[in-house]
Amino acid sequence: MSTGTGGKPATVDEYLASLPDEARATLEALRRTIRAAAPEAEEAISYGMPSFRYHGQRLIHFAAAKRHCALYGTARGSTIRFPIGEPPDEEFVRSLVAARIADIEAAGR
Which of 74, 69, 72, 76 is nearest to 29 (CA)? Predict the structure, then answer.
C-alpha cells in the first residue's frame, strides 16, 4: 500500500482498505450516497480522513473511529456520529450534502 506522509493513506481507497470489514462496509455505503448526491465532487484525503471537495471547496469528511463512524463538516461545521454497521439514512445524507453545496454556491465558490 502506498501511503502519504507519515504512513497515512494517500487515497480514499487506501483509507477504507485499512479498516475492519464492518467499518469499511459502513463507510463504503456512505461514500456511495455522497457520490450520488454530489457527482461533481472530487475525493481527497484531508485532515487524515476521506473527504469530498466541491469546486475546490470542502464539502464533507467522513471517518471511522474505534466504536463509531462520523460525518464531519456538515452545515455549520457540526459532527454527526453513528454506529458502525448503521450508516445514516440516505435521504438525510443527501440533504446534508445538498445544504453544503448550497452554502458553497452561495459563497461564490
Answer: 69
Digit-coded pLDDT (tens) for 19-53: 999 999 999 999 999 999 999 999 999 999 999 99
Q: 21-37 vs 90-106: helix axis angle to the nearest 10? A: 50
Q: What is the spatial distance between Cα 2 and Cα 59, in angstroms, rounded to a whole number?
A: 25
- How far apart (Å, rounded) are the C-alpha atoms in residues 23 and 104? 29
Cell reading at 103: 452554502
Structure confidence at residue 7 as a pLDDT band (50, 70, 90): confident
Q: How far is CA 62 from the centre of its chain?
A: 3
d(CA 63, CA 8): 13
